[in-house]
Write a structure and sequence with these properties.
The protein is mostly helical. The chain contains 8 helices and 2 strands. The radius of gyration is 17 Å and the shape is globular.
Length: about 220
Amino acid sequence: MSIVTPDGGLTALGYALSILAAVVLVLAAGLLRSKTASGKKLSTKQLIFCAVSLALAFVTSYLRPFKLPFGGSVTLFSMLFICLIGNWYGVKAGIMTGLAYGILQFLQEPYVLSFFQVCCDYILAFGALGLAGIFWKSKNGLVKGYLLGILARGAFHTLGGYLYWMDYMPENFPQSLAALYPIIYNYSYILAEAVLTVIVISLPPVSKALLVVRKTAQEA
């Protein structure tokens, strides 16, 4: 059975194997070294929360209301699921899960120009989402952390853009803004998704539900 459709997407088997890989990556990494921000090792239950969030992030990354021609898209809140882990357990757990997610994103749609380009566009960019954990004890920490995480992700994409993707700038792009092309390109879809996400998680029913989930996720 094939795991890839003729148009390059994933079949049901592909989704199942990808989700299984996500779960195994998080559980394996967590059992080896992951700790919460308080210095305690993640419990099995907490590792499962990380794995489920990673799986949801990967699945929702395929739900794209808008996609740019040279990579990057507005998804159905996929970045939020990685930032949630940082919000629950702190920076270390968030970055660990973000790195695993970056590997999955690379396997999903690999673009390879050099090793460092792969790091910028996948490993470091998605690992940076874990910086959301910096505000894990702060008031409105999820919104603050989410914004920090997605801005940090955009910074790595932008660095890769300046180093490797300038030659792909469309000819009809305004020349007066050419020096800003990587910034405009990468933050256009990242901030578009951010606006939608912040609006949704700021709704009182959603905010309350996320607080309940956070409390449950932090229980040992």
